Amino acid sequence: MRLSLVIWRQADATAAGDFERYELTDIAPEVSILELLDMLNAQLVAENRDPVAFDHDCREGICGSCGLMVNGQAHGPVDSTPACLQRARSFEDGDIVTMEPFRADAFPVIRDLVVDRSSLDRIIASGGYVSTATNAAPEALTMSVNKIESDVAMDHAACIGCGACVAACPNAAAQLFTGAKVAHLAQLPQGQVERYERVRSMVETMEEDFGSCTNFGECVPACPADIQLDVIALLNRDYARSMFRVSGDEEVRHKDRRDIPWLSRLRSGPWWQSDPDDQPHTTS
């Protein structure tokens, strides 16, 4: 198989970049997209030229390191599959394959196909964990979690943090990524103590760097972990409820609460009233 690779080349974060075209021949159908880049780099090094920089690590679809746009699609043409597991057999002999870095303001280019995805780390650092002191906690198996909730939590925890959802979204939104972590911990008893503080903090951090979700749904087919849109629904629900939570003796007051009139309408909706524990709190 022969392919023409059109690849974004950029020396560093401040340099101007451009596409360059390369030809590869004798490509086996089972070769992955990352192995195509390996083949190209071997050719470039042999010609005493700079190899293409790209992120990679496990190459087994687990670590989330690999991430690039292939013909305008995050990771490549096969849905729910990371770049390291996309194969050359997805292309026809003689095809032109365009590779470029994830395009989002939150992911600035470092070099060639490598981008800085630390903005995702900032979201996790703002609350994507359990920090409640357990003191003399009993044996873990004595804390009952039913099978359905356990399975759902595991499905949401499968997110590998690659950022494909952001790259695929026309708004460069990170709700699927943030929602996956919020939903994961919301299913477990360990995550309940900080549940609403967590979602407020993570959403506020997310909004500093990423766009808003407008339900395009492009994030789902791009996600290698097959995270579904229901995590965004849970994220929005918990965030709305968090506006009226009580912290100690003081009512939680969001900095923009008075500018969000739709929150008062949510409080009267049937979905809110169905959960007595989540009724709005009032102060006398």
Quick recap of the structure?
The protein has 284 residues and is an alpha+beta fold.
Sequence-ordered SSE layout with sheet pairings:
Elements: E1 3-9, E2 18-24, H1 33-46, E3 69-70, E4 73-74, E5 96-100, E6 109-111, E7 114-115, H2 118-125, H3 147-157, H4 164-168, H5 175-186, H6 195-209, H7 219-222, H8 230-242, E8 246-247, E9 250-251, H9 262-267, H10 270-273
Parallel strand pairs: 1-5
Antiparallel strand pairs: 1-2, 3-4, 3-5, 6-7, 8-9
Number of domains: 2
Name of the CATH architecture of the largest domain: Orthogonal Bundle
What is the fourth-level CATH superfamily of the largest domain? Alpha-helical ferredoxin
Radius of gyration: 22 Å
Please count the helical segments: 10
3D structure, described in words:
It is a single chain. The protein is an alpha+beta fold and 284 residues long. The protein has two domains: 3-114, Roll (Ubiquitin-like (UB roll)), CATH 3.10.20.30; 117-242, Alpha-helical ferredoxin (Fumarate Reductase Iron-sulfur Protein, Chain B, domain 2, Orthogonal Bundle), CATH 1.10.1060.10. It contains ten helices and nine strands. The strands form three sheets. A five-stranded mixed β-sheet has the order 2-1-5-3-4. Strands 6-7 form a two-stranded antiparallel ribbon. Helix 3 (147-157) runs antiparallel to helix 5, helix 5 runs antiparallel to helix 6 (195-209) and helix 6 (195-209) crosses helix 8 (230-242). The radius of gyration is 22 Å and the shape is elongated.
Keywords:
284 residues; alpha+beta; Ubiquitin-like (UB roll); Fumarate Reductase Iron-sulfur Protein, Chain B, domain 2; 2 domains; two-stranded antiparallel sheet; 10 helices; 9 strands; disordered C terminus
